[in-house]
Input
Amino acid sequence: MLKHFGRIALSSIVNRWSDTHPSNPRFFASEVAATIRSMAKLTHPINPQYAGVYHDGQASRDETAVISYGALADYFDSASSGNPATTLSTSSGEFPASNILIWQHWLELITVETVHRMGNVETLAAPANISTTVALASSDPAAAVTHASPPAIPSGSSPGYLKMYQAKLRKEGERSAAENLDAEQEARQGLNQEVIELRAQLAIKDAQVTQLREDGEQLRRDLSDERRAKREAEDESLNIEERLEDAMVFAECLRPDNPLSPPELILAFQCWRELTQDGIHNPAGTGGRGVHPLAKAWLERNGYQLNKSEIERLCAVVSWRKRGSGAIRSQ
Output
């Protein structure tokens, strides 16, 4: 069918079908009525943009007048009888059919659906084999052949058509369900693959996190060892500084040009250094001489003239056998 635009008066539709549709316009009108009844409840209003009451051509539409699906179907039923109604019932009363304008695109959708239904019904109603009856007339030597007429095509509202239409919808539903199931299975497979990939990525991340934790723990241990070594080094340095401080004080005490240095202590220190070889040799070991004779011999050898009490004090200071002496025994 040709594509039409704009709106057309309801009273002109059936006449136009005479030129544009191969079927009988009156028969086609009845099928259109059946299609309209199957679209919605009979009392359901039609969108005013699809079918409305207009005054002064298409200049103004009556917004108060609403047309129902049942009223429009009744009009086409009247047209199928050859006596189309001159008016149409609306929510605001009766209006001339010429004032009812139908949007041609919507009308064409209805007619296409009607043609589609008629084609399905004709296919369903067509017999597999046309039976023929051959009868020999006794009075006529010629063979008389009679053809069985095909059954009448059911209308859109007949039980046969409804069963056929329900079967069609069921097949379409089954096909749609199968397609949806296939799509769902594909989507599920895609999701499963994505889950596998995500799990692999998660395992990699877990391994990386574990490695980072181990590296962090090793770094913590290294830092702990480093801190401990640093602390030990600081303790050792402090100990050395303390001993160095004592040594520096002792050196200052034994410095000859220091006016506060005790002369007897300086002399005793010099004696101790020579006798012990700076603290690494014990000349008074087992079988050796005593500290006092060694100290007296050192004084005589170096020309020191001391009285007895001074010699006794020197020997008492130099002797390393007393408690607190600093001599180191030789091995």
Observations:
- The longest helix spans residues 159-253.
- The two ends are 130 Å apart (CA to CA).
